[in-house]
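Why Lrp/AsnC family transcriptional regulator? Reviewers of the renewal asked for a concrete example.
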Amino acid sequence: MQIDDLDRRLLRQYQADPSLSAAALAERAGITRASAWRRLERMQASGIIAGLRGVIDWRALGYGVEVSLRLTLDKSQNNAFDTVIAQARQIPEVIEIQTFLGRVDLRLSVIARDMAHYQELYRTRILSLPHIAEIEALMQVATLKEDERLPL
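Here is what the prediction returned.
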């Protein structure tokens, strides 16, 4: 679906505050309420706007450690990817799973309350995942930029 300058203007306002009503978004974007509503509906139907979500700051809930685990799998095993992904999804502290092409097959983003909690997770849950040939752990020190907004 092609979008025009009015759609981009509307999307910029929507990204800034998705909780605004169509009327408020229309006012901020400088278009009529009816036009804003039609455009938002069209962009939702086409999948450009995928929906609203609540973002919870896990740090505020006492999770102070984030570790990025890069996994290389033993790909000689049938369904290695599917098996590891299915089991990793069952670990509540795994908040993101990404797949890659290249030497690294998967990246797991793991949160923990503290290092002792992370060590327990690593020993009991992560190391028990099947088909792992190699693990590299990268501990996050700081988040310097975190922005999901697109440059529209």
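The chain has a mean pLDDT of 93. This is the kind of structural detail the renewal will allow us to pursue systematically.
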